Structures are given as C-alpha cells and as structure tokens.
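Handout, section B. The chain below has 296 residues.
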Amino acid sequence: MVVDGLNGPDEVRARLEKTGYLVDDGLAVACFLALRLHRPIFCEGDAGVGKTALASALAEAIGAPLIRLQCYEGIDASQALYDWDFPRQLLHLRAAEAAGITDADRLEGELYDRRFLITRPLLQALETHPSVLLVDEVDRADDEFEAFLLELLSEYAVTVPELGTLRAESPPVVVLTSNRTREVHDALKRRCLYHWFDHPGFARELAIVRRRLPEVTARLAEQVTALVQALRTEDLLKPPGVAETIDWAEALHALGATEVDAELAVATLGSVLKYREDAERARGLDLTSILSARGA
C-alpha cells in the first residue's frame, strides 16, 4: 500500500484522478488526512453525488481491496461483524459423537475454533491489511449500531468471547456515507473527518462525465450536463445526482445519439428522473431553450 509514501493532498488528488475520480481541494485534503492519521472520513450529501464511488476510487488508488458493509434498519453486530457457523458446528458435534469423543471441554473448544467463525465485513476489514472499509448509508442503521460502530472505530479491535481480542495490524481506511435521511449522532461524527458532498458545478460535472464516458461525444456530454444542471434548479422530489447524469449520457449513447434534442431528452427521462411528478415537471420545461443556451 502506498499510504506512507504519499507526500500530500496533491498526490492523493493525482492518484484518485488516475482512477477517473475527480476531487476538489477540500476532499483531497480530507482523503490525505484520513490516510495519514488513520481517521475515518464521513461523507454526507444527497444520493448520487459520488460518496460511495470515493471508497472504490481510494481502494484502487492505494492498491487495497474494498470491503463494503451496506447498512439497513435493524442491522446488528452478528450481521456486520461475525457469526458462528452453526450447521458446521452441528455436523462436527455429530461426527465427534460418532467417533466416541465424550470429553465435553474438548468438544466445546473444538466447536468454537476459528475455522467455524464466519467473518462479516467489519471483521474482514480489521483482519485484511491493507483494506478500505466502506460503511454505506450509516444513516439507515439505528442508534445501537452507531454506538457499536463508534467503539469499533475507536480501537480498531473487537473481542470474540470464545477467541479473545482480535486487533487490526494496521487500521483500515474507513469511509462512512450518509444520505442524511436522519441525523447521525455527533459522537460518531467527531471520530471522523467530515466532508459534505454537494452537486458539482457545470465544468466539474462535465469533466466527470467526459472522464467516465470517453466514448460519448463532447457535444452530447455538454448537453446532458446542461440539462441536469437545469433540472436541479427545479423543485423536484429527487434532484438527479452525478450518477444519473452519467446514466443519461450512457443511455443516449447506447441509442446512437451524438447530440440530444428536446424530443429525445423527454423520451429518455427515465434514465435520470425516478419519480412520476419529477418527470411531469421536466416535460413542462422548455428543454429546447436550455439546449440552445449550450449552442444546440
């Protein structure tokens, strides 16, 4: 892993850009500090603005595997950390009984051997060196899981009663994301470096589309970016993110388009807007004028 050899935020930015992920100054600094200080980076913002993609880009940039934990309501430690393989333990117990082994202490010790431990993403990240751990949509988890996660990230260690304390040889690079469906507790945020992901301006978004979809014509990329930028100024239920901009440009390219007009834009709105009310509002816009402003 190249973390120790990184000389500063500019080198982090360059490595991320080689993966196709463009960052601004604030995010480059946050990523460098996360790598150098072994601090988690807490990424918050609307869906589709590149929070999850940052973890993938970091993993590629430093040559480490990406380990992902998708959070959801009701997730607990056994689903995120480890569990015991009860079917295999039962088979082992039956085999031992068939072999005439009756020593209870021996059987118990064998049943809780490491080979029967199922590692979940958090434990996998602690035991994989190097690694990038993505804790995705932590705002969907409950308060109890937040508290557990805070303790784990403070020590980068976990105690398995039957095996003892398992500690990371070197802390993983941790990226937590939140779509802000609810407020995450301050205690967890204080443990992290914080970065707010806003929708990019036209020039940066166009650069992202061109980097991610080099096969798309420059004209089409510029028109799609202009349309998405205009849609975000409307009162939509779900403003499109950068991910939707890329999806829209990719869909139009798949249709053989080298540029887009209002009729084609309306026909492909399903690639960028996911609510009926938003699509209806978009159909009521003067898309031709938006395109004309970009030299269509």
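Note. The first strand starts at residue 41 and ends at 45. Compare this with the example in section A.
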